[in-house]
Amino acid sequence: GDCVKDLLFRNRTIPNSDPALLRCELFEQYSGVDDKNGIRMFEGDIVSGLFYHEHEVLGIVDFKDGAFGLSWKRGMVDEFSPFVCNIEYEVVGNIHDTPELLEETT
């Protein structure tokens, strides 16, 4: 999924293995935040960030309660933190192409 410059959405076409079904079109919204390398962060991106006294968190870019941020699990608890400017985020993958990244954290 290539990022389309100057648009608010990234369009990803995912072919379906069953030719009788139509392909799936996904539109992921740009969060308005770039990572530490200047990569735009979109919904569904897997992002690393340092939280809670240098504790690294691996989560998914999500939109909740009117804000974009990072969703992750801490034990059995679902966590969400809106993006803040003093944390360095880094896009390391996305839920479509590299979902196994999240499996490593559970």
What does this structure look like?
- The chain is mainly beta and 106 residues long.
- 4% of the residues lie in helices and 54% in strands.
- It has one helix and eight strands, in the order ββββββββα.
- Strands 7-6-5-4-8 form a five-stranded antiparallel β-sheet, with no helix packed on it. It has a three-stranded antiparallel β-sheet with strand order 1-2-3, with no helix packed on it.
- Strand 2 (24-34) and strand 3 (40-42) form a beta hairpin.
Topology:
Elements: E1 9-14, E2 24-34, E3 40-42, E4 45-51, E5 55-64, E6 67-74, E7 77-82, E8 89-94, H1 100-103
Helical amount = under 10%
Give the uncertain stretches in residue-range form: 1-9, 19-24
Report on the biggest sheet: 5 strands, antiparallel
DSSP strand (E) fraction? over 45%
Alpha-beta content class: mainly beta
Give the overall pLDDT as a whole number.
Answer: 77
Q: How many separate helices?
A: 1
State the shape.
globular
Order of helices and strands: EEEEEEEEH
Brief digest:
With 106 residues, the chain is mainly beta. 4% of the residues lie in helices and 54% in strands.
Characteristics of this structure?
single chain; 5-stranded antiparallel sheet; 3-stranded antiparallel sheet; 8 strands; 106 residues; 1 helix; mainly beta; 54% strand; disordered N terminus
